[in-house]
Write a structure and sequence with these properties.
heterodimer, A: 228 residues, alpha/beta, Rossmann fold, 7-stranded mixed β-sheet, 7 strands, 36% helix, B: 407 residues, 8-stranded mixed β-sheet, two-stranded antiparallel ribbon, 12 helices, 14 strands, 35% helix, globular, disordered N terminus
């Protein structure tokens, strides 16, 4: 993995917001700036539709979503978003190939039953996949386990072990090594510290993996890249 | 809780039934009469003329003619969506949903509801007088389909000069009409909201309908369908049909919560076949009140129309092809405890729409009320309906309703 694989225009991605996204949802802003205007987008696990709304309003995309909770779906439909009540683990298989320009999975990968299959389906349905997830390799997580001997609780992973929906946590390195297995390559990648600051792109991987509280990757099928 | 009437023993309430019979030819609804010279070609190959269409409207059509919503009724519903019923005097079947300030807001939308082809509330059906004979059609009425029902609604919209509906919505059999509308006339449907419905009738659905039809036809007063001529009525058979069907509209939990094994106005079993249990009494009431307002032959025809419904079959077996490249925005709604048209049936619709690249929302509403939930006050259901309609109306540039000043 060389630095050149990582997007050079990180400053574009995290430049001061002209939109009204609250600072604590900087990850949404980063994701939204990876999306080309007017694209067809599917947000898997779209929650109350905050990202879809941001994409629709600032990027003029054709925004669709899947969300498990009825409350979330209702909120989305009320806002005029096309959202289906469904489960990333079971319902992605029903979408045809290349139906979307981008398939987004925002802070949801770690809560799926089969992250690998979800990722494979995303890469099949979309020309590109954008995945953001909390990094379990962050130094605070490591220190909590090392010194306190307790399952870590952080800002992005604030659950007790017995009630967390996050059943498949991974580190940035874990995620990147899975990409080889599913035949994906990184088109862009960015790690954010717990204060929402980007880790410098020139930084080595171990630094990303230590100081990134969360990561956002834009992926492409390897086969797609070799064609172009 | 309900008056004890056993429709299977003694029903002699001719007055409302006489009122209902008058509705078939001379309804208390606006009517569109189509001339004899323009027969409607039906799926069966038969053609029908003359034809009359009974309907109701609520609200005002805007100058751009862009705020019209068509409501399609279920099996035994009618056009009296939000006004009091001319036969029963009860309030409209969707009065909770349709009206000023309601989710289907008549301050903003122009709402149209028709009686379906084959119905008995004023649109031509088996209880209507056959002009060729001067007698009610009875079984001489041609068997009609959901698509035929929609064809008739199209004629009304042409008459009202409405090119494109803001939304077509309806539950159950109404939902089938919504799907047929979207498949047959996509350019005339800006948005569609099929509720508690299915893209085709299942074997179980057909089976329940057949029980109802056989109950009617087994009644000696049915007289081969000529009961209106002979001055009798197959009330027993029709009541049994309704009782059996009514069970399918409720969930097991709804019945258990409402009635349990409670006894009706008594402390002990009578060791007879009286309605000892409240649930028996309730079903008998449902049966007996139904026969006052509904025509038995009409019940045969509308159930048959549902049975024949299989949208994919018209598109080479692929439901996705029915909606290929559709411009219509969809909101599909199902209810968790609906076992008559279960969520899996709605999901089949959603999958087909997704495969066709359609803009689709899907909500499964948590409710223990069974299939009938779509007729009841379900806050999440109403919120979804309100939100979806408001969003599509905004997208189509329909102005907001004036903000009501609280009295």
């Amino acid at each position: 993995m060389s630095d050149s694989d990582i997007d050079e225009r990180v400053s574009d991605l995290i430049a001061p917001a002209e939109s009204a996204a609250p600072p604590e949802r900087l990850d949404l802003l980063v994701v939204s700036r990876m999306v080309k205007r007017g694209a067809r987008v599917l947000d898997v696990g779209c929650g109350d539709g905050a990202l879809l709304k941001l994409l629709r309003d600032t990027r003029a995309v054709d925004a669709r979503g899947i969300e498990l909770s009825q409350r979330g779906v209702n909120d989305c439909v009320k806002n005029g978003l096309s959202v289906i009540q469904g489960d990333a683990d079971t319902d992605l298989v029903d979408y045809p190939d290349n139906a979307f320009d981008y398939v987004i999975l925002s802070q949801t990968l770690q809560a799926t039953r089969e992250p690998r299959k979800v990722l494979e389906n995303m890469l099949r349905i979309g020309r590109r996949a954008i995945v953001s997830f909390p990094n379990f390799g962050h130094w605070r997580v490591r220190l909590q386990l090392l010194f306190r001997g307790r399952m870590p609780r952080t800002d992005t992973l604030n659950y007790a072990w017995y009630e967390t929906p996050n059943i498949h946590l991974c580190t940035i390195r874990d995620f990147v090594s899975l990409l080889d297995e599913v035949g994906a390559c990184i088109e862009r990648g960015i790690a954010l510290t717990r204060y929402g600051k980007p880790v410098r792109v020139s930084a080595p991987w171990w630094l990303w993996n230590l100081f990134g509280a969360q990561a956002v990757f834009m992926l492409e099928r390897k086969s797609a890249r070799s064609r172009t | 809780m309900f008056e004890i009437t056993n429709p299977l023993k003694s029903v002699s309430r001719r007055q409302p039934r006489a009122r209902a019979a008058r509705e078939a030819d001379n309804p208390q609804s606006p009517l569109l009469r189509l001339p004899e010279g323009e027969p409607l070609a039906l799926d069966s190959g038969a053609s029908l003329a003359p034809l009359q269409i009974a309907y109701q409207t609520y609200g005002t059509l805007n100058a751009a003619r862009s705020n019209a919503i068509l409501i399609c009724h279920a099996l035994t519903g009618d056009q009296h969506v939000a006004n009091s019923h001319p036969v029963t005097g009860k309030k409209g079947w969707w009065a909770t949903m349709v009206g000023p300030g309601k989710p289907i807001d008549t301050e903003r939308y122009f709402v149209i509801a028709t009686n379906v082809l084959g119905g008995c509330m004023g649109t031509t059906g088996p209880a209507s007088t056959n002009p060729a004979t001067g007698h009610p059609y009875g079984l001489d009425f041609p068997v009609v389909t959901i698509r035929d029902m929609v064809r008739v609604q199209v004629l009304l919209l042409n008459h009202l000069n409405i090119d494109q509906l803001l939304c077509v919505t309806g539950g159950s059999m109404g939902g089938m009409q919504v799907l047929q509308w979207a498949a047959s006339y996509p350019e005339r449907v800006f948005s569609a909201m099929p509720i508690a419905t299915a893209p085709r009738h299942s074997s179980q659905n057909i089976a329940f309908h057949e029980v109802g039809r056989q109950a009617i036809m087994a009644d000696p007063n049915w007289r081969g369908g000529r009961y209106l001529d002979e001055g009798v009525s197959p009330t027993k058979g029709l009541a049994v049909a309704r009782m059996a069907a009514h069970i399918t509209y409720l969930s097991e939990k709804a019945l258990q919560d409402k009635f349990g094994r409670n006894l009706q106005n008594r402390d002990a079993h009578t060791f007879s076949f009286d309605a000892d249990f409240q649930v028996e009494n309730y079903l008998r009431y449902q049966g007996s009140s139904f026969v006052d307002r509904f025509d038995a032959n009409s019940y045969l025809y509308v159930t048959r129309a549902c049975d024949y419904f299989d949208l994919a079959a018209d598109y080479g077996g692929s439901l996705a092809l029915a909606f290929k490249n559709t411009p219509t925005r969809f909101c599909v709604i199902s209810f968790t405890s609906d076992w008559l048209y279960p969520t899996s049936a709605s999901r089949a619709i959603v999958h087909a729409l997704n495969a066709g690249g359609a803009s689709v929302s899907f909500v499964e509403i948590a409710s223990d009320k069974g299939h009938d939930a779509f007729l009841l006050e379900e806050p999440d259901f109403h919120a979804t309906t309100r939100g979806f309609l408001s969003a599509v109306a905004d997208a189509r540039g329909v102005r907001q309703a004036a903000v009501a000043v609280p009295a």
